[in-house]
Amino acid sequence: MWRHAWRLARKDLLIEFRSRTAILSAVVFTVLVLMVFNFGRDPTAVAAVDLAPSILWVTFTFAAMLALNRAFQLELENQALDGLLLAPVSRSSIYLGKLIANLVFVGTVEAVGLPLFALFFNVRITPVLGPLVVVIALATIGFVAVGTLFSAMTGRTRFAELLLPVLLLPFMLPPLIWAVLATAALLAGRPLSEATGWLRLLAAFDIVFVTLAFVLFPATVSE
Amino acid sequence: MLLAEGLRHAFGAVRALDDISFALHAGQTLAVFGPNGAGKTTLLKVLAGLIQPRAGRAHIEGGRGAVGWIGHQPQLYGHLTVRENLRFWGSLYDVPAAEQSRRETDLLSRLDLHAHAERPVRALSRGLVQRVAIARALIHDPRVLLLDEPFTGLDRTAAEEFRRLLAGQTADRGGRVTVLVTHNVEEGTELATDVAFMRAGRFVELAPRAGRGAAAIADAYRRAVTGG
Fold first, then answer.
1. Mean pLDDT taken over chain A
2. Which of A136, A187, B174, B198 could form a disulfide with B38 if both were Cys (CB 3.0 to 4.6 A apart)?
3. Across the strands, what pairs with B173?
4. What SS3 class is residue A11?
5. A87 close contact with B: CB closer than 8 A
6. Are A135 and A195 in contact (CB under 8 A)?
7. CATH number of residue B9's parent domain
8. CB crowding B157-176: b at 16 or more within 10 Å, else e
């Protein structure tokens, strides 16, 4: 299963590397949103450290949406999805491959966005970089897992780009809230123990929803 | 060998397949002719295992990995080169590296694609893309080839060239079983050893071609399907 999943993920990443459409859009979007929030806020009214966690996660969420929307569009061009379903590859491998590619994609956008976020909002992330990366990783796995499933469901509809956020955002609320709270605790310099509860919830969300998505994915691509 | 036994399927109230049964052995090519909506593509998808029939069963010797599919959509990635596409699809069928390399060279040569091997598929003409689609479908040397309206969208010259290439591929592997579905009798006749006429999900006739040409088959089709 892993072998086929990796081949699928590598193919998706190679295509993205060649076309650069979604990654460029997502990075430009991230930079623009951070700039707008940076120059649009009144620094005397709310401290940057109070506002920054929400802005970080709003930015990452909508940038990820661009990647997720594209994940299955790629397979619908020229009906390549039928070819994948015909091949002796398990449906779970297809899901896993898409999940890996989406995680790399969103991770890349986040790797570009995080230093920019620190720069624009003048927050010191280096002392809490390790725990912050764990928060980002756990939240990203959760919403990309659900997002990959929903992008397979909506990909064959006429309004895929509209439907995906409408379906996905309600599911993303819990991990986003926990991620914002954990990020806020870390950036405010509170002890790590204050964030471990949120980290546990994020890990539990990941386990439940990655498993569910794995089980449900075959039904979403069957006719 | 390919076996279909009492296949039935419906989409809501619309009957797509109604008691379809046939068996094909090595070297046989069945051309299924029928108007749009007759259930031809559904039949292929059921044979390929993409759709689970409501009743009956389809059996392909060698399972899903033994099927090659060529449709009017090429199932290729436009941003990958011809060779990268072949390599990717071969890897999904676990074709060993040395064998993959040999088959790539062979198919690129037979389909006259060597000069285009390193070009991205999206830069190729429709006729060339269909040739790559044949190579993609054959990269794992399938025992069963399913062809879904493969001539759609091709002009007369490109369709003629494509038919010649397909005839070469089906003949090259004597043990291969091929099912071709199309609404155009002229397109598929010369590839077929057997013909079936399909209407409203049923085979109204299934018989060996027995040397009949396109005109004779077209006459028989009109009588069987339209009653004309």
1. 89
2. B198
3. none
4. helix
5. yes
6. yes
7. 3.40.50.300
8. ebbebbbebbeebbeebeeb
Amino acid (1-letter code) at residue A49:
V
The two tokens of residue B167 are: 């005839």
B37-91 pLDDT tens trace: 889 999 999 999 889 999 999 999 888 888 999 887 889 999 999 999 999 999 9
Cβ count within 10 A of residue A100: 20
Q: Quick count: other Cβ atoms within 10 Å of Cβ B49?
A: 14
> Taking the C-alpha atoms of A145, A148, A149 and A152 in order, what is their torsion angle to the nearest 10 degrees?
-170
Tokens of A146: 């659900």
Of B50, B77, B84, the CB nearest to A86: B50
Specify the higher pLDDT residue, A165 or B119: B119
Beta bridge partners of B5: B57
Looking at residue A70, its pLDDT comes to 82
Within 10 Å of residue B102's Cβ, how many Cβ atoms?
12
Domain boundary among B141, B159, B181: B141
**Pairwise CB contact (< 8 Å): A78 & B69:** no
Q: How far apart are CA A97 and CA B195, in angstroms?
A: 41
The whole-model pTM stands at 0.87
> Which residue among B120, B141, B162 closes a domain?
B141
Tell which wins on pLDDT, B79 or B221. B79
Q: Give A122-161 pLDDT, tens digit per residue.
A: 888 888 899 999 999 999 999 999 999 998 888 777 777 7
Range of the domain at B16: 2-61+143-226
- B80 CB neighbours in chain A (<8 A) are 11, 14-15, 18
